Amino acid sequence: MRKRARLTEPTKDEFDPEDYISLLPDDILVSILSRLTLKEATVTSKLSRRWRYLWTQVAGLDFDANDTLDRIAADPKLRSSERPKYINWVNRVVRQHRGPKLDAVRICFDLDKSSKCAIDNWVKFAIAKGVQKLELDLLENGETLRQPTRNYSFPYKQMSQCKRFSLKNVYSDFAPMQTGLKCLKALSLKCVNVSEEALNCFLSSCPVLKYISIHGSGDLVNVKVSGLSLMLKYLEIVFCLGIETIEISNVNLVSFSYLGPGINLIIKDVPMLDEISIGEGYSGLENNVFGQLSCCLYQLEVLTLDIYRPEENIKIFAFPELPKLKQLILKVGAWNDDSLLEFTSLIKACPNLNRFVLQLIWMSPSKRRRKVLKAAKCSHQFLKLVEIVGYYGRTSDAELVLYFIENAVALQKIIIDPRNQILERSPIGIDQIKKEESARKRAKKQLEAKKPPGVQLLIL
To answer: Where is each F-box domain found (predicted)?
Structure first.
């Protein structure tokens, strides 16, 4: 049998007299290595015999492959050759890891159900090591959701049996370790199918679980989160297109995020809930969103609305008052030169607003010459910061900023970011760069002379 390497304190003869760092105790050196990327930490094994196995003690394993994912996004044909390389890399690290516990494990690569065997073993390895934070980010090309039928499915039935699980079941070189799920605090799953039964397993088997994020699951239909005994504080469900109902009640949740089709959303008895991010359906405001949130609107401090296609009648929409709201973030599709002043009625419903962010997603924006419109005046006493992200230089962009210049009496800073809010790995061509530079020039021309003294205008 292969013997496990033993880490021992060094003798004086093993070191260069000026190599003070190698004289430090193992635990300090491992702490230093944990601040490096996993690949950087692995390279230190070549420094000397003393360093050979130190990296195997790190408590955080972040299998980041951003450079490779960028190449795959540019040339999807590379996927078939790069997948085995990534899987082999993770397998090698898992086999060599000698630390007794894991704080975090992150898998980030374009993987689907064809890699089920390998991913199952990684999940079992992490759970058996008492992992606190587990992230499976399996987005296609590193950035988009795939068809749910091709997703990897989380092995919750095996996971629930992990109290009897031994690492010998995964890799024979490991000593037995029986831990289970009692240490898991955060779980993030992207392009991973999670059923209602699996979600219930997480909630019932993970007593200190505080954060759950699920993106692109094809198996979720009905979600129920209830019970004061739950430690859950953050719940995020994004683009789970088969979902029909989410019920949250009698729980100390502080943050809830949902983005997807219109659903039956039931929220009640959530006294700690003060942050919500939501977008339902094509317009983002379908299905009576504010009616669904009525029980907690008065206590919200942060609200994010995803509005893909603002409707014409939004300007006459009767927004309820949000008396405690301090931050309002709107993610809005930018179509043609449609006026954005219709959102001022929502802003007026937030009397204590401190920060406003508008993130424009360029759908088909266009510039045209037209008269600058104005909304009815309304003094905003506490608004200090306005951020416009995806500023295109349209008249509609400028007139909204001018509204704040004229009505936000406590305004201190305006941030204009003209960069297109596109997918992270999408290539940025010369045409795109020219559009952004044009937007910067137009922002300066449209706004510089209008800002009052004492207000900082920052154009990124």
So the answer is: 18-72
Rounded to whole angstroms, how far apart are CA atoms 424 and 263?
A: 28
Q: Which tokens go with 128?
A: 């058996």
SS3 399: helix
Q: What is the pTM of this model?
A: 0.85
The H-or-E segment that residue 39 falls in is helix 38-43
Each residue's pLDDT, cut to its tens digit, for the chain (460 residues) gives 334 344 444 554 454 555 566 666 667 766 676 677 777 777 766 666 667 667 777 888 999 988 888 888 888 889 999 999 999 999 999 998 888 889 999 999 999 999 999 999 999 999 999 999 999 999 887 677 888 999 999 987 766 554 444 444 444 433 333 356 889 999 999 999 999 999 998 998 899 999 999 999 999 999 999 998 899 999 999 999 999 999 999 999 999 999 998 999 999 999 999 999 999 877 667 778 888 999 999 999 999 998 877 665 465 567 889 999 999 999 988 777 778 888 898 999 999 999 999 998 877 666 667 777 788 888 999 999 999 998 888 888 889 999 999 999 999 999 999 877 665 555 566 777 888 888 888 888 888 888 888 899 998 8
* Backbone φ, ψ for residue 394 (5° rounding): -70, 160
* β pairing state of 275-280 and 255-260: parallel
Beta carbons within 10 angstroms of residue 363's beta carbon: 12
Which long-range CB contacts under 8 A does 348-351 form with residues at least 24 apart?
348/319, 348/378, 349/319, 349/320, 349/321, 349/322, 350/321, 350/322, 350/325, 351/321, 351/323, 351/381, 351/382
